[in-house]
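queue> pop job 88
queue> type: inverse folding (structure -> sequence)
queue> payload:
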């Protein structure tokens, strides 16, 4: 067996294990928390009083205007200077959540704004409150439109978690770096890590297509009934 193939075989399970233990949990937790934060931020910008809306706009402006890697460094390496000490994984989770929250808030804000005003008026005309109209009428319609951009954000997040290696989170990419430090074979190991990211992204892309088709059929059924 060629040397490079033996090396890839020996390092395969350590890389996969790091992905299962750190990369995937970090991705899922960051996305769920970031999506929740994004929804709150979008609603604050659209419907909140001016002071709250201004704070939401400032948060989005800062996060979208600065690199994710710098944000992670500020949280993990910068905050200890003012007495705030965080372990690597929580620091990464906070950083990715804040970043995803800012970007998903813009997606959610756009899709909520795209729902025709007549839908609000129809909901109010049958006695719904603002909260009921949002939950039962606006968000279900907005969710169908938001699926493609949110799915793309999720797939990008999977790849962005490799930045957590810079703050010592032992995820997939840092596992590759550690093996490189002992084998001195950076090309082979980094290609293998890239292939694992590619495989995961490909699976998620396939699931995204199926999800979009399902929502498209659902939307078509609603239009037919209407």
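queue> result:
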């Amino acid at each position: 067996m060629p040397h490079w193939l033996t090396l890839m075989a020996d390092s395969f399970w350590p890389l996969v294990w790091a992905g299962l233990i750190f990369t995937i949990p970090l991705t899922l937790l960051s996305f769920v928390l970031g999506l929740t934060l994004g929804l709150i931020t979008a609603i604050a910008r659209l419907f909140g009083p001016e002071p709250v809306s201004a704070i939401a706009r400032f948060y989005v402006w800062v996060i979208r205007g600065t690199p994710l890697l710098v944000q992670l460094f500020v949280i993990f390496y910068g905050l200890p200077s003012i007495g705030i000490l965080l372990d690597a994984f929580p620091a990464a989770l906070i950083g990715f959540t804040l970043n995803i929250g800012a970007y998903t808030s813009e997606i959610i804000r756009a899709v909520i704004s795209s729902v025709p005003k007549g839908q609000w008026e129809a909901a109010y005309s049958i006695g719904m409150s603002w909260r009921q109209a949002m939950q039962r009428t606006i968000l279900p319609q907005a969710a169908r439109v938001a699926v493609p951009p949110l799915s793309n954000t999720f797939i990008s997040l999977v790849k962005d978690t490799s930045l957590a290696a810079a703050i010592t989170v032992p995820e997939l990419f840092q596992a590759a770096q550690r093996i490189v430090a002992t084998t001195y074979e950076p090309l082979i190991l980094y290609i293998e890590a890239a292939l694992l990211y590619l495989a995961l992204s490909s699976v998620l892309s396939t699931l995204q297509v199926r999800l979009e088709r399902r929502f498209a059929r659902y939307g078509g059924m609603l239009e037919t009934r209407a």
